[in-house]
Amino acid sequence: MTALERIYLWNILKGMMITFRHIFKKKATINYPEQKRSFSAVFRGLHILNRDEEGRERCTACGLCAVACPAEAITMEGAERLPTEEHLYREEKYAAKYEINMLRCIFCGLCEEACPKDAIYLSQTFAPANYSREGFIYKKDDLLIPHPKENPEAYMKALGERAAKTN
Ligand code: SF4
Ligand code: SF4
After folding, report:
1. Which atom of ligand 1 is nearest to the CA of 71?
2. List of domains in the chain
3. Pick from 35, 120, 37, 29: which is nearest to 74 by CA?
4. What's the CA-to-centroid distance between 101 and ligand 1, angstroms?
5. Which helix (H) or strand (E) holds 95?
6. pTM, 2 dp
């Protein structure tokens, strides 16, 4: 080992040169959450439970999404629609309870493919971080898209580009 190597000066200078070279290169990182990367057109994120153009819930609690789910992340309970609830639910049966465990979900999109009612799709937003396991159990209220007539702006925002392309 030479005297120069012994005091590590050369290695320190080499390291500084690498750092200096990177100062002028385009940054690989972004200032999230102020800046956001654009996703691929086929990116599959957080689930949305869809409504029809009248604002009625599309899900009929048939359970096909839960059966198709390889991670067993979906649970639901069905209920019969009452005559006074026709403006709320499109089908005679609806999901009184619908939950997705995002810690299990692998965002494969099989639930979306299995659904015969166009009631569930994966949007281009992702599940936000949380400090508790319970926070990753998304309930029906968390998943249901805003009403298209009562809140059209929020509806369009939640619908996102991916749904607009696939609908
Ligand atoms: S995206 Fe895949 S893993 Fe996630 S709930 Fe749907 S079917 Fe299950
Ligand atoms: S989301 Fe679709 S597949 Fe799943 S229970 Fe509702 S209607 Fe059936």
Report:
1. 3
2. 47-166 (3.30.70.3270)
3. 120
4. 9
5. strand 93-101
6. 0.80
